[in-house]
Amino acid sequence: MTTTLQPPVRPASAGRATPHKVLAKAGLYVFLLANAAFVTYLFNAAGVGSNKLINFGRLAGLYGALAMAFQLLLVARLPWLDRRLGMDKLTSWHRWVGFTIFFTLVGHLVFIAFGNAGPDGPIAEVIRQATELEGILRALVAWAIIMVVGIVSARFARRRMAYETWHFIHLYTYIAIFLAFSHQVAVGSTFRKSALATGYWWGLWAFALGSVLIGRVALPLYRNWKHQFRVAAVVPEAHNVVSVYIEGKDLDQLGAKAGQFFLWRFLTKDRWWQANPFSLSAAPNGKYLRLTAKALGTGSADIRNVEVGTRVFAEGPYGAFTTMHQIKPNALLVAGGVGVTPVRALLEEIKGHVVVLYRVSDPREAVLLRELEGLARTKGAVLRLVTGSSKTITANGPLLGPENIVALVPDVQDRDVFICGPGGMTDTVITSLDELGVPSNQIHAERFALAN
């Protein structure tokens, strides 16, 4: 459906570039580089020996410990970082830091083993130290866990493994971090060399672990105690789509924004242990929160059977897919498949003139289409349903190619573009926008998948 194009509405705040992402990225870089420099200083202050292999091994171990602490900060889901960078970006950082840990710990073991190797070789030396020195065996167990997690996180292994299995293995990283820290306390010469070094490492680990406890434990517990979430209604939207309305206390104080998502845990005897990530499919209004789920898996399919009154444990809100990052007066929203849910919520909240491109293979698969049509009429927006198979070629080329996008939205370069949908569709749209010269700071993308 296409509505009549209305003159753009320019909000008073339009055109002011928001520094949120830049500030958050700069903060992380400064934190990491400053700590790396200080770790290097402490290493040199502790005294550098004549054995270069052992020196390299010690330094690699220290950098690995720093990377572990930084990794905890990335997975803590702290609201300040999450709302500025989003789960996608934090997940990308998490992946690269994870492989940094992998290789620094490999270097730590290899350099130390060869540096200390006697006539029987490095393996024999490692075995000897593990049986004679305090903390070495714990370090080897931590090293083995990190190696397993690193291997199963590689793309070739990750694609062949169920998410639940991968996630369960990934949780052992916390055990590895604890063992690695105890090893550092027991035998780390740099850790024990001076009061400054000891205080630094204790402070760094306390900050990192404290961030996890606050973001992943204390804050969710507090929010759920305060808001008392319950299922208010379960409304079928289609044969395989259902919307769930969540009510609670003081929802206007929750701080949720259109475009964000929660991890929803319905507290029934057969579902309490399972958390599902679903975006808000309506802008928060202080009265209820709404999620809309399509039966893509067992967990999603079972949601239609949740009873009214069921208690809900919700973690969030998460995500940077919000109007907080809008820097242009007007916007283009691109939705694909179930990615329409945060886009529908954004359409309700976003300012300025809006064009919506809703990509589905078949018009009958267009979830929440009537709501989108109603919102488009109310806001004077343009809604275009882009249908056809992935091989469909229009008079302007591929459905989401640059020529067709500019034909549908001639002023796309002057709009913020919010994209949510399957990975392939998202990548295609971003590539087309790049070819059209849309600045990267105007492109806001979120893949409709759980960020680990």
UniProtKB/TrEMBL annotation:
It comes from the Bacteria. The keyword Flavoprotein applies. Keywords: 2Fe-2S, FAD, Flavoprotein, Iron, Iron-sulfur, Membrane, Metal-binding, Oxidoreductase, Transmembrane, Transmembrane helix. It is found in: Membrane. Its cofactor is FAD. The chain crosses the membrane at residues 26-44, 56-75, 96-115, 135-157, 169-187, 199-219. Its main location: membrane. The keyword Thylakoid does not apply. It is a multi-pass membrane protein. CDD domains: FNR_like_3. Residues 224-324 form the FAD-binding FR-type domain. PANTHER family: 1,2-PHENYLACETYL-COA EPOXIDASE, SUBUNIT E, NADH OXIDOREDUCTASE HCR. This is Ferredoxin reductase family protein. It comes from Lentzea kristufekii.
